[in-house]
Design a protein that fits this description.
The protein is an alpha+beta fold and 178 residues long. The chain is built from four helices and ten strands. The chain folds into two domains: 63 residues, lambda repressor-like DNA-binding domains (434 Repressor (Amino-terminal Domain)), CATH 1.10.260; 98 residues, Jelly Rolls (Sandwich). The chain is 24% helix and 34% strand. A six-stranded antiparallel β-sheet has the order 1-2-3-10-5-8, with no helix packed on it. A four-stranded antiparallel β-sheet has the order 4-9-6-7. The protein starts with a helix and ends in a 5-residue tail after the last strand.
């Protein structure tokens, strides 16, 4: 099964497990009912930003949509811009409750993340290049071998204003389930 098929099947299964209609899923995620239906039918590939909205609305880790259990992590390319590539380094672990992602941003790339669930903590460490991050409307510059930790339940964005590709890791700790 390729990643797009896996994503479509996973989305549909998660929605059905909750007993939600597409309308309810649209309300919870902020993604249109039409787009969600297209994703489930494998007629459309979501952007990374859309996939984050869906994961947040369903209160599941991002990697749940891209890393089948017992599979090797594969890169996910944003179909709209191909300027952001996300590769899970470790699949989500239910006990430890974290995603560890390797992310590259091409020169000029920008990506905005919707706030995660309350209690989510994100750690970003730049491996190479210079990353600009907006956390709750304040821009910060993070250089190689430096990092930042912040509450992921606020608006945040990533930007590469340089001519060099930026490589960074994002470790996302999810809050315990009630």
């Amino acid at each position: 099964m390729d990643i797009a098929d896996y994503l479509a099947t996973t989305l549909k299964n998660l929605r059905q497990q909750r007993g939600w209609s597409l309308s309810r899923l649209a309300e919870e995620t902020g993604v249109s009912k039409a787009m969600l239906g297209q994703i489930e039918r494998h007629e459309s590939s979501p952007t990374v930003a859309t996939l984050w909205k869906i994961a947040t609305g369903l209160n599941v880790p991002f990697s749940v949509f891209i890393v089948p259990e017992q599979a090797d992590p594969r890169p996910v390319y944003d179909p709209q811009q191909q300027a952001m590539v996300i590769t899970p380094l470790f699949p989500f672990d239910e006990v430890l409750r974290f995603d560890h992602l390797s992310i590259t941003l091409a020169p000029g790339a920008f990506s905005e993340s919707t706030p995660h669930e309350k209690g989510v903590i994100e750690h970003v460490v730049v491996i190479s290049g210079v990353l600009e991050m907006r956390i709750d409307e304040r821009w910060q510059t993070i250089t190689a071998n430096h990092g930042i930790r912040f509450a992921g339940d606020q608006t945040h964005a990533y930007r590469n204003s340089t001519e060099e590709t930026v490589l960074f890791h994002s470790l996302i700790h999810y809050a315990p389930t009630p």
